[in-house]
Amino acid sequence: MAYQYARAGANLVLTARREHALVKVRNKCLELGAKTVSLVLADMGSSEAREKVVEQAISEMGGLDHLVLNHIGTTPFEMWKGDVDHTRWLMEVNFLSYVHLATRALPHLTETKGSIIVLSSLTGKIATPYTTSYGATKFALDGFFGALRHELAMQKIPVSITMCILGLIDTQSAMEKIKDKIAMTAYPAQDAALAVVSAGTTRQQEMFYPWYVRPVCFFRDWFPQSRDWVMHMSYQYKPEGLTVPS
């Protein structure tokens, strides 16, 4: 997504926990045409770090047009094992930090009639196996930002909110997690990034990628039995200690 904005000549503020990764992305963004690229090392589990990100963005750019919320905490792709503390931490990173950043940025976005772009997931629309805690955070995003969109409209505040509902994307972390557990096609991250940036720029309320995500959301409520059958056929489960013949 940073590369897509860079091609459009944007001023960027990027944040992550790993400096070497940020430097690599910054260099590429500058090659692609970004006007400026600032870096903020920050852990989104820390409220102080989140304040720093918004403050630095405003200080260095003088304003804010797009706030793209995309970070997630690491979580295993496995059956629920009762780790409530992990779920509490994941809610802090995947949900509450989004709320915090959006709240701090909202006055500045109001001045520029800007946009909030929220990266969500099909697991935030339909409950799926192996994603109990992760899915809960994505459902929370849908509820909060959906309600906030209504409130902004009622108050005539000109800030758009775009919810990006993504299916399986071929990022390295996703591919490692789903190995031997999901029988479905992963779609290119580059195409997903372009779809996200395009949706935010055109101020769409919701964006679905890839093609199957929208019809699956339609089937969710109208054909629950078929939905569950497809779900169980798409996910594989091998109990621990059980050897399955090849």
- The helical percent reads 40-55%
How far apart, in Å, are the first and last alpha carbons?
39 Å
What is the radius of gyration computed over CA atoms, rounded to a whole number of angstroms?
Answer: 19 Å
Gross morphology is: globular
Uncertain residue ranges: 242-246
Largest sheet: 4 strands, parallel
**Helix count?**
9
Topology as H/E string? Answer: HEHEHEHEHEHHEHH
| Structural class computed from helices and strand pairing | alpha/beta
The spatial strand order of the largest sheet comes to 3-4-5-6
Strand content: 5-15%
Oligomer: single chain
Q: In total, how many beta strands?
A: 6
Mean pLDDT: 91
Textual characterization of the structure:
By secondary structure, the chain is α/β, with parallel strands linked by helices. Helix content is 52%, strand content 14%. The strands form two sheets. The chain has a four-stranded parallel beta sheet with strand order 3-4-5-6, sandwiched between helices. A two-stranded parallel sheet has the order 1-2.
Tell me briefly what this model is.
With about 250 residues, this protein is α/β, with parallel strands linked by helices.
Task: Provide the fold topology.
Elements: H1 2-7, E1 11-16, H2 19-32, E2 36-41, H3 47-61, E3 66-69, H4 84-112, E4 115-121, H5 132-154, E5 160-166, H6 172-178, H7 189-201, E6 206-209, H8 213-222, H9 224-234
Parallel strand pairs: 1-2, 3-4, 4-5, 5-6
Helix pairs in contact: 3-4, 4-5
